[in-house]
Amino acid sequence: MKKLLFLLFAAPMLFTSCEEPYTPPTTEEDQQYVVEGYVEYGEGSLPTYVMLTKSLPYITTIGPDQLANLFVKDANVTVYDGTKEVKLTQLCLNQLPEELRAAALAILGLEADSTTLNICLYVDVLNQIEKKEGGKYDLTVDISGYKLNASTTIPRHVPLFDARFEEPPGEPSDTLAALWFKIKDPTGPDYYRYLTTGDEDDRFIAPFQSTIDDAFFESKQFDFPLNKAERRGGGADDADDFGLFVRGDSVSVKWMCMDKAHFDFWRTRDFAANSGGPFSSYTRIKTNIEGGLGIWGGYSVSYYRLFCPPK
User: What is the C-alpha to C-alpha distance for residues 256 and 261, in angstroms, rounded to an integer?
Assistant: First the structure.
């Protein structure tokens, strides 16, 4: 049964294989603006922020100069929270709070000490946006007269409970454990995503399949495992270690609820990231950005800080 539940969390990947094939643009003339921005609600949530870049041709050579030129600066970025419109402040890498700096580097897959890029974000520095469950948030980006628009919501939060570390499936282990949680799913559609901290630092990273909906456990109380995230390009030394936590380590989990459009972005993005290879087809990642690509997403969040005990 437990082996089945480990597979269950990866089941949404099976349904994304029907995504429509797409031939990406191959010239610089076809470049589009890309938005990645989030508004979070919950204890310990990040400030609202937006990163603006330009897309690259599908076949291109990327160096430091090309990467630096992708970032869009001096745009006018505003968020309407249903009551007031808030202009976000442009802050570059050396001005960012540590948690936002780490988030920006994680988005780009860069290490904290390995970049000299002048990465800039647009941030709600004074926390003026009223963030709440059920809130709707309209984003407007003006880049020299070219406008992008998007809307998102912060859904109700469905917390996890009864965290526990158990013997992993298969052969008994003195050094590894599986992390299990319970969830009591309410009536109606709900969409979830999670991150865990890695071995080397406290930066949150996503597992290879980070999203799930409640199609299999609608309105039920349900036990399920959360896999430990592995850095892309690294991974576990042994397939038997995949998704398991090392006994004696501290563990942090960031659990997030999101709306359907936000879920569709991450579902297709995860599938595209995990289906590479010389014979794979290009998967078009879903977007909710009018006039561009990317995601403007709302989250309701909670954090769980745990210790994986020695056996």
Answer: 14
Query: By residue range, what is the domain housing residue 137?
Result: 30-153
* Boundary residue ending a domain (153, 170, 203): 153
State CA 26 to chain mean position distance: 27
Cα gap 43→303, rounded to integer Å: 8
Backbone angles phi, psi at 264, to 5 degrees: -60, -35
- 3-state per-residue secondary structure call for 234-289: CCCCCHHHCCCEECCCEEEEEEEEECHHHHHHHHHHHHHHHCCCCCCCCECCCCCC
Residues 278 and 165 reside in one and the same domain: yes
The DSSP letter of residue 225 is E
The overall average pLDDT reported for the chain is 84
Q: How many angstroms separate the CA atoms of 193 and 174, rounded?
A: 29
**pLDDT digits 0-9 by tens, 183-209:** 999 999 999 999 998 655 678 889 888
- Asked if residue 290 and residue 261 are part of one domain, the reply reads yes
- Residue 27's CB is within 10 A of a number of other CB atoms, namely 10
Q: Which regions of 44-128 does DSSP assign to beta strands (E)?
A: 49-54, 76-80, 85-87, 89-92, 120-123
User: Do 134 and 282 belong to one domain?
Assistant: no
Q: What is the pTM of this model?
A: 0.84
Closest CA to 258 of 246, 267, 245: 267
